[in-house]
Design goal:
about 300 residues, Rossmann fold, 2 domains, seven-stranded mixed sheet, five-stranded mixed sheet, globular
Length: about 300
Amino acid sequence: MNKIPNRQVMNDVLINRAKDNEEIVVLTSDSRGSAKLAEFGETYPDRMIEVGIAEQNIVGIASGLALSGKRPFAVSPAPFLSMRSIEQVKVDVAYSKQNVKLVGISGGVSYGQLGMSHHSLQDFAVTRAIPDLQVLCPADRFETEAMFNALVDSEEPAYIRLGRNPVEDVYESTDIDFEIGKAITLKEGTDILLIAIGEAVRPSLDAAEALEEEGISASVLNIHSLKPFDTEKVIELSKKIGTVVTVEEHSIHGGLGAAVAEALSEETGIKQRIIGFPDEDLVTGSSEDLFEYYGISKENIAKQAKEFLG
C-alpha cells in the first residue's frame, strides 16, 4: 500500500485550486516545512503569509483576511492551534462566522517523542463544543483530497486535524462518496459496529477483517466529520447491530466516543465501548509506539470487540 502524508495532499490540492481562485491564501506559524507547504509558497509567494510562532495572531490575521474576501487556510501544529489560540478561534472565527479553515497539523500523538506538551488529544473535545465551527479529520490521502476540495468551495469556518506521518490507504481512489457531515460505511456487518475517525480508521478496518476470519461479522463506519455529526447514520446502524465500539486518536473524553454516546443517549438496548487514549499523562514514544501501547491497533481492537460481544 502507498503511504503518503495527508499534509502533502493538502499542499497539492491548494496549489491546484489556487490556479483558478486568486482568493486562496495560506498562513503558517513557522511551519511551512512541517506542513509540507514549501511548494505552495514557491508557487504563490505573494499568497503565503508567515506569522512566526504566534498562533493567536495567525487566527486573528486569517479572520481579517476572510473579512476582506480572501479564503484563508491557517496551518499550524494542532496542539498549539487548538489550545493557545482557542479564544480567537471561538470569537474571531466561529462567533464572527468568518470563512477561515484552521488546519491543525501533526495532530493526535504525531509528536509522540516530545511528550504531552506536543500532543493534541483534547482538540476534538474543545473545538466541537464551539458553535458554528466544523470539525473534520480525514482517514487517508484520498479522503484528504476530497475534503480539501470541498473546503475550498465551502463558506463555513472549520477546524481540520491532519497527522504528521504517512498513513496507509483506506480507499482505492478519490472516487468516494464524500460529503461533509455524512459518514461513510466502509464495511457492512451484523454482529458489531466499529466507528472510527482519522488514523484510527485503517486499524479498525483491519480489525474488522481479522474478526471476519473468526466468524464475527463487523461493520465499519468512518466518521470524517465530527461536526456536523451524522447522527442519523450512527443511530440507524447502532440500532440495527446493537453493539458499538468507537476508536479514536483522542482522549476517551469529549471526542468521537462522546459524540456517539450523545447520539445514542436516548436509545435503549445499545452497548458502547470507547477505545482511545486514557485520561492520564502518556508514556513517551513514536506515534506508532503509542498506538500499539494504548491499543489503537488491529489486534487490540479485534480483541476488545470479541470481549465486548461476550
